[in-house]
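Worked problem 6 (solution included).
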Amino acid sequence: MLNNSDLILVAGATGGVGQLIVAKLLEKNLSVRALTRNKSKAEKMFDDKVDIVVGDLRQSDTLMTAIENVNYIICCTGTTAFPSQRWDFVNFFEAKNSPQIVDGEGVKNLILAAPSSLKRFVFISSCGVLRKDNFPFNILNAFGVLDAKLDAENCLKKSGLPYTIIRPGRLIDGPYTSYDLNTLLKAKTDGKKAVVIGTGDNLNGDTSRIDVANVCIECLNYDVTMNKAVDIINSGVRPPVIDWEQLFSSMRRERD
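Solution. The predicted structure is:
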């Protein structure tokens, strides 16, 4: 269970989900280290309230400072599923920021660098990784994003580290990448739908980035989520308060 003496490393801290995770950890008065490629962006976003470390998952030798003395790692890095400017093309056939390099090799570099004393490694993957040959996930996987995420999942499972894999549906709400910490702390889901939790990659639907951030943090307080892949979507009528204990305890015992 999380406590105030823990240090949580958030990889991809300035991204669409990462920034919300950082804000919610700070709201709980927890110690956060942000791993980012862009130090000035992180400084503007988080008001010097986190320990900012510059590193690049694509370059394993840049990760040693980031992992020092951390108790938890939440990895929410990623790139677009389809070719875009974010892929940082060298030429038509080569990109520096493709899913294979970021979602696959980059995440594996962080897993291999993680300390053996780690209490939990949380990795945001995607729904559809076990259904990537079926419609519509075969379209999403046209450029290999689900292949890369599944490869990283398998590396994490074999690593010996305690882990939780989060598999959200299509992300909605935000991203709030142009806002500051005060705005992030006030971010509320625009949807009116409840959180639905499952296992086995059987869920379909949209998922609020805010609820993805929430589940990444809340799962650390429950042993039932240890060494599990947790599916999450939004569906049904949203209650006034999300009961995470009940949601996690109701997870079906299925193969990941």
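Discussion: The radius of gyration is 17 Å.
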